[in-house]
Recover the amino acids of this structure.
């Protein structure tokens, strides 16, 4: 496998997958430890994989610029650039109902958010579009949007920050966007796809195929290893092992026809709001 530059999100929802990848690598004798990185995107070598750390919006940008080849990337990043980007089949970061880490936290009931400025996270693009769809399209609520402020009446938080905030601060109203989406559409919500550059795939489809097979194996290992991984994961220090295992149980790493139905519905609604230019055909990379 020639070196692939692969994005790595340091959020708890990705931890089991990357722990499983590390375990598989160690079993294969490649050696080397992959550590955590904070702040701006940072590169670390792992055999034939160059991991580049970052939050979702950073990795989205790097992927669009061609600075990385493949990443668990916000679904909306693919939807905004389907000519240059494609995705691996069968894999996603999704929820089937409650997800626990994509939360609208409010001091007032949902119906009273009309005209209220909601503080938006800068870490995710997909969740912001999802919030607009849930409020403006499905419920007819027209809020304002701005940065997260201390005095914000409502905020959208994702990832570890959402988990931490909900574990420490008791907001009067907390709305789980994954749960709302399932209730309103009857489908899973695909927050992220394993998205790659089309031209990079064309130059080295074997590298993509080998990494894809490794990911599929890692996914199955992750599913059956949550309690064991939680004992080693750094997130257990602030969330606790039991809550971490419970949280991982809300994540779906699959991309079934049902998941794709939800993704296509999201694309149609995003297009109607002017958030994307077209609804793509949803043809995955041809890997086996």
């Amino acid at each position: 496998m020639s070196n692939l530059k692969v994005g790595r999100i340091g959020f708890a929802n990705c931890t089991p997958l990357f722990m499983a990848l590390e375990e598989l690598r160690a079993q294969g004798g490649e050696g080397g430890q992959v550590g955590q990185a904070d702040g701006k995107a940072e590169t670390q070598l792992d055999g034939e994989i160059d991991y580049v750390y970052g939050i979702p919006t950073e990795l989205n940008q790097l992927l669009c610029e061609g600075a990385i080849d493949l990443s668990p990337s916000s679904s909306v990043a693919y939807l905004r650039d389907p000519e240059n980007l494609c995705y691996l089949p069968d894999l996603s970061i999704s929820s089937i109902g409650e997800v626990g880490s994509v939360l609208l936290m409010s001091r007032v009931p949902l119906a009273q958010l009309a005209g209220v400025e909601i503080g938006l996270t800068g870490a995710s693009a997909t969740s912001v579009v999802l919030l607009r769809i849930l409020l403006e399209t499905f419920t007819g609520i027209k809020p304002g949007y701005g940065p997260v402020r201390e005095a914000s009446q409502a905020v959208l938080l994702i990832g570890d920050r959402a988990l931490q905030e909900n574990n420490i601060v008791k907001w009067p109203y907390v709305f789980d966007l994954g749960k709302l989406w399932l209730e309103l559409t009857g489908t899973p919500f695909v927050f992220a796809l394993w998205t790659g550059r089309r031209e990079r795939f064309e130059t080295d489809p074997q590298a993509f195929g080998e990494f894809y097979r490794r990911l599929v194996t890692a996914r199955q290992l992750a599913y059956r290893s949550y309690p064991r991984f939680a004992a080693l994961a750094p997130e257990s220090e602030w969330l606790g092992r039991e809550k971490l295992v419970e949280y991982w149980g809300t994540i779906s790493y699959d991309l079934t026809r049902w998941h794709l139905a939800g993704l296509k519905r999201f694309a149609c609604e995003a297009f109607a709001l002017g958030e994307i230019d077209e609804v793509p055909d949803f043809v995955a990379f041809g890997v086996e």
About this structure: The chain has a mean pLDDT of 91. The longest helix spans residues 205-223. The CA atoms of residues 93 and 253 lie 5 Å apart. The chain has twelve helices and twelve strands.
